[in-house]
Amino acid sequence: MTKRGFLTNLVEFTAFGMLFGAVALWAVALAPIH
How far apart, in whole angstroms, are the C-alpha atoms of residue 23 and residue 15? Predict the structure, then answer.
């Protein structure tokens, strides 16, 4: 694995992780359970 490929995968993983986390927090915030 090249360094550039590793950085690209890291960026994509971070982006998907942030997106998933945002969606999860949004779902919890809109949930009627407090």
Answer: 12
